[in-house]
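Give me the fold.
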Amino acid sequence: MSVSSGSSERVSIPRVALGTFRSTGDDAATAVRCALRQTDSLRAIDTASIYRNELEVGREIRDAIRDGIVSRADLFITSKISPFEMGAAKAPAAVEGILRRLDIGYLDLLLIHWPGAAKLPLSSEKHAVIRKETWRVLEGSVRSGLVRSIGVSNYGIPHLEELMASPCEILPICNQIECHPLYPQEELRSWCAARGIQVVAYSSFGSGNLFGAPAVAQVAEEMGDSQARVLLRWALQKNLCVLPKSIMPERIVGYDPAHLQPLPNLPGRYLSEAHECILDDMVKSEGLTKYCWDSREVR
């Protein structure tokens, strides 16, 4: 899969990346070390300024490159500017800080983490101004060669419409959002797909709440696969990219894209139609359920 950021370089977003939300210190280092050294093809890492683990993530990447395990070109590294770093006055230093902490030369993808700036009322008109200022800084980071592609996270349709209606030199390559069978975000996914914006799903496991759900357990048993991979397969079947997160090596090994290929007996499909329908129907019986933060009230 290849999607364009609108920059001079065409960038391909990996379908599977290791998420590092809430992984700090030694836990973050262990997770990245496992991905790079114990899997065949998990070479994409997702971090963020606000996760406070970029030093550890960067160190493990540099060590793996030094040891000849991977090359920088093999990797796809994403980070994000936090709500505390937005705006024309703060965002340039934020980009510099991310690059300094990671110390890997450049970023493959840089996102605006949240559509609102910190410490402002959700209804403040200043959010829109600060979003636009921050996007201009991200565009500049692409032009300067510090970042290969740029995108957004937690943007709703109104935020995206505003961004794309403003004069922007580079369109967002992706929108990273919560997405799983109990919060499928069909309207937002369709809107993004129609405009060439790749949806990247976080919280594919519903913050762990979907493990043990009867439908998930049924499909996992019938497929002879783990519940985690069944939920990731649901997202992949919807043409989403995914960010599975763990600090346990045995689970991280299971997130290797080699274990998440289309089914051999159903070319191009990650789940059978019957199993996809079982997971799709969860929201009908259990109700729409959001587990993470909600940006819909950010003006």
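Residues 1-8 have pLDDT under 50 and may be disordered.
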